[in-house]
Design goal:
Low-confidence stretches: none
Number of strands: 12
Helix content: 10-25%
Oligomer: single chain
Distance between the termini: 33 Å
Structural class: alpha/beta
Largest sheet: 5 strands, mixed
Order of helices and strands: EHEHEEEEEHEEEEEH
Shape: globular
Mean pLDDT: 96
């Protein structure tokens, strides 16, 4: 199963993001959607599970502050604001203590992140919306099967973002 992961569109759904999701079976949006039309257009590509972010007032169409979905046996928890994977917001820690997840998808920082801590993968695809400073514009593609994440690939949505992905990857790792 192929899963597209996107965040921080801020009302802009780039055609490059839609192209990157060709063949996706499901799309996860980690908030700051910016316009319900983004969700509508993504749903033309694949089924969407989304959370709303702070610019959305944590409400955008059906999206609210958190969401859960299980895909090919992998349990996903979505939130917009995580803080740092090693220093979770108390609300996120509470949700995960109540019902564990295999992958926590988050946004907000506009920083790409892929780190596994105590068996939980923390994934931020970076921002797919308007460019912010020298941060990358990207999405991620996951391949999952039989309860495991088989691969994660970050997709730069423009040439400038290719180097920025490597430069900014996992900057949230510090304590």
């Amino acid at each position: 199963m192929h899963i597209g992961v996107i965040s921080d569109t801020h009302g802009l759904l780039r055609p490059e993001a839609v192209a990157a999701f060709a063949g996706a079976d499901h799309i996860l949006h980690a908030g700051d959607i910016g316009d319900v039309a983004v969700l509508r257009d993504l749903s033309k590509v694949a089924e969407v599970t989304a959370v709303a972010g702070n610019i959305d007032g944590f409400r955008c169409g059906q999206a609210r502050e958190t969401a859960r979905v299980e895909l090919a046996g992998v349990r996903f928890f979505l939130t917009h604001i995580l803080d740092r994977p090693r220093r979770l917001r108390p609300q996120v820690a509470w949700h995960l203590a109540r019902a564990p997840a295999d992958v926590v998808v988050f946004g907000h920082s506009h920083l790409p992140h892929d780190e596994t801590i105590d068996g939980v993968r923390y994934l931020n695809p970076a921002s797919a919306g308007p460019r912010r400073f020298n941060l990358p514009v990207s999405v991620a593609m996951l391949e999952v099967a039989r309860g495991k994440v088989r691969s994660v690939r970050f997709v730069a949505l423009d040439e400038r973002s290719e180097g920025a992905l490597a430069m900014h990857m996992n900057q949230l790792s510090s304590e």
